[in-house]
Amino acid sequence: MTDSQKSWAGYGVLLLLGAGLDIVVRYYPANLPVWMPWEFNWPEYLAVTLSQAWFWRGLKRLPRDQHPALWRKFCFVAGVASFYIVLQTHIDYYAQHAFFVHRWAHFVLHHAGAFLIALGMSGPVLWAGMPGFLKPPLRSRPVTLTLGVLQHPAVAPLLFVGLLYLWLIPHIHTVVMLSRPLYSVMNWTMAINGIMFWALVLDSRAKPPARLSHLMRAAMILVIELPQMVLGAILSLAERDFYPVYEICGRVIAMSPLNDLHYGGLIIWLPSTLTSFVAMIIVLVTMRLNEEKAERERAGL
């Protein structure tokens, strides 16, 4: 069997596995364990499984000296796995019926999981493992121009914070939580935006070839930190519930609406701030390492 045939056979296995999960979830939802999907979603399933498949395929294709460090490989795999856990297990059910679980899920999509994926710096590996027919569209001018705008240093932090605020506007949040298509759009935008933002900030290279200088990355971290703290404080100190939609959907955890809201606010306030703090340390460390590397190159060592 040729490499091409093996690849297509692998895609067939992934599709059969997805079809099996879809059937089981559709017809036997009450009999499934918590690690199975609550509502099977083909785009989410394919995004996770194909990215992992292309990652391992890319590792086989690239010479070993072009592989990311072992810890970066672990970060990438763990980050992608965390996305699957919050989107395609029963955690997604709890996220639809408890505000603080919803905030944990979005913390993974927008912060922790996206942070790990960006820290993995596995873009070249994914590119090497990706089918050839997908590469020209991704290299096309409209796509590159769009990415350039979205990752512009004036736009990226605004978009990062703006999406967080947008999806938590009470009226919008109510509509989104009652619409499965909009709910998926919300999750996709948070995950993609998180990866794009942290990929800018956590790039270990100096500028160029990195898009931004280390000082600009540090400034972006500071820009996003205060608005998140303010939003978290507003929600965690609120005296009334802003999200009655969780009463409409039915709370599955014995907790008062205010406690649910306060815990959700604390998740926005504290873990998000900690993520920014860790990012700042990484930026300062990589800046120093790149300065030392440049000094060695100037000295001819």
SSE order and pairing:
Layout: H1 3-27, H2 42-61, H3 70-87, H4 91-95, H5 99-120, H6 123-129, H7 135-139, H8 141-150, H9 156-166, H10 170-177, H11 180-201, H12 214-236, H13 245-249, H14 257-298
Please tell me about this protein's structure.
The protein has one domain (71-122, 132-298). The chain has 14 helices and no strands. It has helices spanning 3-27, 42-61, 70-87, 91-95, 99-120, 123-129, 135-139, 141-150, 156-166, 170-177, 180-201, 214-236, 245-249, 257-298. Helix 2 packs across helix 6, helix 5 packs parallel to helix 11 (180-201) and helix 9 (156-166) packs antiparallel against helix 11 (180-201). The mean pLDDT is 92.
Keywords summarizing the entry:
mainly alpha, globular, 0% strand, 14 helices, 301 residues
